[in-house]
Design brief:
The chain is an alpha/beta fold. 46% of the residues lie in helices and 11% in strands.
């Protein structure tokens, strides 16, 4: 009888875990990551990059920092709200990283959320990470000004300013300005030569700019 109850509990737990990875945005990508992890789990104390498609599409990130234990977990066109509500238990905590670089928030604002809302979601994520991974260094990568989303620039600036202020005196918290480096010095507007044709995602030259900023931090 005890054996039957034990087996029932194991199956029930497995079912709950499986269901927890379905039914939310981009759940197929989360399942893909979990499948990868089941084959080869990244070592603890790595350097984790999470966020939206700007991380997902940075396909040579690992090669650019080939001597570092990079873990790349970009999820579709996700929002920082979704990272808070769904993804953290799957793409942050299990890896026990020593550094976490976060690029998210741009899609929240493009979906109509305010800069204040987006910053508050980061505050939530900060608290969640600190509770589960108290020793991790957290790096917020500033929300970039994408030419195709020019009408949202005021809210982007608000979100970035609030997060920068929030992190100013936070131990193990860092604001990384990857936004100003993709501006044209002459016009102070986004340099379109650094973007793909959709004027949303960076091209290789754009990622060169980001790499230069991140180089001294990814160590």
């Amino acid at each position: 009888m005890k054996l039957k109850l034990y087996l029932f509990f194991i199956l029930l737990t497995a079912g709950i875990t499986a269901n927890a990875q379905t039914g939310f945005p981009f759940d197929n990508e989360i399942r893909d990551f979990k499948h990868q992890d089941s084959i080869s789990m990244p070592a603890k104390n790595g350097i984790l990059f999470i966020g939206s498609s700007s991380i997902r599409k940075w396909t040579d990130l690992e090669q650019r920092f080939s001597d570092k234990p990079i873990i790349r977990r970009g999820v579709g066109g996700c929002t920082i709200e979704q990272v808070v509500d769904y993804y953290a238990p799957y793409i942050i905590y299990p890896y026990q990283p020593r550094k976490i670089f976060i690029y998210a928030g741009e899609n929240d604002i493009a979906a109509g959320k305010t800069g204040k809302f987006t910053a508050r979601e980061f505050y939530k994520l900060w608290a969640m990470i600190k509770q589960n991974l108290p020793h991790a260094e957290i790096y917020f990568m500033a929300i970039k000004p994408s030419p195709s989303r020019a009408k949202y620039f005021p809210e982007v600036k608000i979100a970035n300013a609030l997060v920068r202020s929030f992190l100013k005196n936070k131990k193990k918290g860092h604001y990384v300005d990857i936004a100003s480096v993709i501006l044209n010095p002459a016009t102070h507007q986004p340099d379109t030569s650094l973007f793909e044709s959709d004027m949303l995602h960076l091209n290789s030259k754009g990622y060169d700019k980001w790499q230069a900023v991140l180089q001294p931090l990814v160590k």
